[in-house]
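Entry:
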Amino acid sequence: MADGLTAYTPWFRSSGGETGRRPMFFAHMSSPNTSYNQNGQTFKINLEATPDADHTNDFDEANSRFIVPINGYYFISYNVCIQHQGNRCTEDIGISIRKNNSTVVNYEDHSANSNDSNTLFTNMSGSAVVLCAANDQIELYCTPYNGYAVGTDANFTIGTGSRTNMTGFLLGF
């Protein structure tokens, strides 16, 4: 090219033929902050906002999951903002990337284990390369492990907006 730039347009094939676009998404949480209990059950993190990026329209915001459009290796990452209001002190929270409701990776953090009068924030991040088949479902879950709350209030909040998000894209075959 005359300007010295070379354009690369990948073409991907699926059972439906050539898609012409690399599957990718960036989704975040939009609902109001929700309080959870440290000794509660595992729950899905709802990323129900209209995705900031969803080049192939495969992120299902109504069900907070990415529906894999074509076979391949996908890079998936997340950031979850955990908030502890004054005098809350929780520990050992796990965040997992799941494929078809089976854990691919689970990252644990001691979260905020300081009983403080201020609001404390912890950002938990993780990533994985996941081999997927068409129609696999990728979701984000939180597990507040039992028996680890040490403060006067064992609740925590997941922050909304772009602070809590998941992103993914097709690496290749």
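The CA atoms of residues 33 and 139 lie 19 Å apart.
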